Amino acid sequence: MKQLSDQQRLFLVESDQLYRIFREMVWRQNDYRYGMRWKNVNGNDYLVRLTSASGHGRSLGVRSDSTEAIYRKFQEGRTLASDKFSGLKDKLAIQTRLNRAMRLGRLPTVVAEILLKLDEVQALSEFRVVGTHALFAYEAMGAVEFKMELLASGDVDLLYDIRQHISIVAKKLDGHGLLGLLKKVDKTFEVKASERFRAVNKDGFMVDFITQDKGMSYVKPEAMSAGDLELVEVPNLEWLANSPRVESIVIASSGLPVLMPVPDPRAFSLHKAWLSQQADREPVKKQRDFNQAVMVLKLLQEYLPNFPLKPDEMRYFPKKVVQSSIASLTQGLIGLENA
Predict the structure, then answer these.
(1) Distance between terminal CA atoms of the chain?
(2) pTM higher than 0.85 for the full model?
(3) Spans of all domains in the chain
(4) Confidence of residue 219 (pLDDT cuts 50, 70, 90)
């Protein structure tokens, strides 16, 4: 685990501040994306605010001084939002080049672009990145770099909490579903026929659409659109779904900042430690799980003391899991320090 230099830390902070402002401006500009127009009905002009790409909208009333004023205000607001967006986009482009020059970028570009697209339509709030790629968020939180061999992965797991109404996300994705969004990133993404929860692109990179196991009595929601990815339930994933949500600005390999939502790092460490103890887990994955869990624990102790690993703060885990995981992590940390 290597600390970032002072210059890298400065750029990380500046990237964080700039991207958080930029994303809000993206949302504001998106408020104007469908537009507003006059529609003639039976000889009368009505002001219509469009609400979808298909041309659907709602009437704001017949043409009058009041609706004329609404229309003018809308056009002025759209121009102002566009101007501010352009200015921030230019600043972000400069920051991106600086980040790349300082070798600050770590997150694979394909993952960054998926998160950016989800954030652009305000759907990122419905997901968390779990699994190996969450490590990029944790190292950014601690302003350190983990060993790349711990971070390498050919897939990203997107955790969707099944307790939320999936129709909310479907609406944000404009009826095209998660696959439609992935295709905007890379048009070669396709749903895998034998594993409908997984999309794969031409490079073999996979995106998994996963959720916690709610039991046999729970009605599985339908896909967000025809041919879209289908949710797959993963046993014991409710531990991560119930954990506090943490958001971190991560730098992509291209230098571009992106927001990544992840589970509490303590939950990640405990869950990975538990996985490493499962008899049916592949041996090569078990050791990798444990190494990742220990590394995050070391990060917490050395750089993130605001995340103390206290059993009473881990009540969303079974007590036995917390006890056995902490015991194995403690031994692993001792072994790491003595190595």
Answers:
(1) 14
(2) yes
(3) 17-101, 105-263, 265-339
(4) low
